[in-house]
Amino acid sequence: MRTDRGGRNKARALVTFLAVSVMSGALAAGLAIPFAGLAGVGSEKVVETVQTLPRELEIEPVAVRSRILAADGTLIATLYEQNRVPVSLSYINPIMRKAIVAIEDSRFYEHGALDLKGTLRAMLRNQTAGDVQQGGSSITQQYVKLSLVEKAKTAEERHKATAVTYERKLTELRYAIAVESEYSKDEILERYLNVVNFGDGAYGVQAAAQHYFRTTAKNLTLPQAALLAGLVKNPTGYDPTNNMARAKARRDVVIRRMLELKVISVHQANTALKTPVIDPARVLKVPNGCASSKYPFYCEYVVSKLLQNPALGRTVKDREHYLKTGGLTVTTSLDRRIQKAAQASIDEHTKRTDSAVAAITVVEPGTGLVKAMVQSREYGRGSFQTAYNYNVEKSYAGGFGGFQNGSTMKAFTVAAAISRGVPLDYRINSPQQINLSGKRFKTCTGWTRDPDYTPQNSTQGGNLTMVEATRYSTNTYFLQLSQRVGLCPIAKIAQSLGMYNGQTMEPLDQVISMTLGVGYVTPLMLSNAYATFAARGKYCKPLLVTAVQDKSRRPIETPGIECKQALKPEVADGVNRVLSAVMEPGGTGGRLNFGNWDLAGKTGTIQDNKAVWYAGYAPNLAAAAVVADANLPYTNLMYRHTLDGRDISDPTGSGTAGPLWQTAMEGALKGMPLRRFVAPRPVVAGDGARKDIPPVNGMNPDDAEDRLRQAGFDVVVAEDRVRSAENEGTVAYTDPRFREGAPEGSLITIHISNGD
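The chain above was modelled as a monomer; its predicted structure follows.
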């Protein structure tokens, strides 16, 4: 009896002391001493701990899920570390507020930072148990604890924020007093309901309402609110998706407590008690990450671009954390209608079990907006699935790095030739096979040659114009044209249009066969480069992220549309005319024409048929489609490879990749305004300034070319060769305009005789 009486007296003294301390707003050394005495903790140590605590709690923003949207605002993906959607207290049904207060802190609106009765009751129970237990925390203290956990960046900090010690309790109380002095009770309750864990991955009352009931915090019913309020004590143990019986028992405890406090009527309680806990079929799992998106490859590429944006954080790790916790809204260029058209093409022309892969990217000319990105392999790590994105470069984790692009590269040779004044009817005798062994090709840094190179055509040869040679994709024509124009101008134009090696991220190699497409490029690169022709020479960087907003809907700086005039409009017009011939009757893409659209394009088949391409465009849209072997080492598509469930017997750019391009573009262009290419006009290179031509007659042909180039002239070696013995090894001007002077930058056509 004496012991009981002594305990009661001690408790009364403690209550009185705590009451005075809290009412005075003080929490100094004296408050720590009674705690220490009851717990057997050294008073000096606890006092020292309390006195060193900050008097204000720096509250970190709670983790909020971010959203990635299509151009029309449709949700593409949700990214989060915690599934949370903050809402204001006015948006939370009052019955939810009453339920949480009833079960967690019924005197919340009556006491200060500390509930003296609850704390004393918990301390006496803990003292009797001989151990430090949980319990007795006010909602404010719970909010402080949750905030400290949210703020913790390391495992040590998280352990400290959840450690079962009186030091932690004192820390929470010191902070709770600060919080109560700064915020109203309603503000604290709002923050608490938005931060607390409601189980099964749902944080905050709004996410929990959506998850368990497919409703909102504003529309929660009494039994729903009671279930959520009951989950707070043990989110895992009372999770109805794990144990329905335990969840119901806990929910009913909340309902009865609300009845006991006269928060609800008997009728309301009885009705709520009879209500089923949840409908398991209606539990809504919020997908997390790009793997759960309908557009996983596009989504992952968007994320990779976001992680490059310094406005989202100092390091990639910081940006990733912010992206998953900052409540960002990311709007993209994805056009769901165009994406659907591209996907329909994949579905029509491929099968899931094909050994070959197909990919298509669609870009808008004049903006660089990437409208669609699809491929035949599904996202995943199972059979006939992949985590590789075949449309993009290898500079990020999921990028495949591209394929050799074959004769689609000839378009850049056409552009280089036109920009240097070569007319569209420029003829070159193009035999079925040509010997280029040892022939010199001018690069940006010198010369290159191949000691043993005898390429041939797979299509028609002859004495062809540039238009005819492009229509037939005549290799020997373009090899000779690239020799006369020089590899450097081709490389520079390709680079200015965003073409580079998708595997190494280096410029395309300036080799003799450059015009035949030996570099590894991606459908995204190629479609965007061809979009430059459609936009009359205006090149725009590919753009997927069009806007980023923080959780308060304030814009975050992000790169926007970035364009430049990479080609003169008349040069692009000339390219459009030349590539349009490809889609005319008799051209390699003649079967792919459709409707009344102005269309231009180019086929591409690489050596040994390891990949086939079709890249083309209308004034409104550009697309590139590829079919390839994606397994190392790459093999010939016609051997043991299937597409659309059938063996590929004759892989070609027009017959294999072409139908994918055609179906995608026909669907994508449907309903868009009909636009036309501008008719080309002759291009005059240079700015018209005149200068003297250096004397080169009688010089060695290679030395003559060097001197002319050093003087600022572009040199094209003429097809006709002077064969008289007296002129052998000499250089002579064929155009009288160039005998006395010529516009700066103009082409100088020279005849060279080497005796061959």
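The two ends are 125 Å apart (CA to CA).
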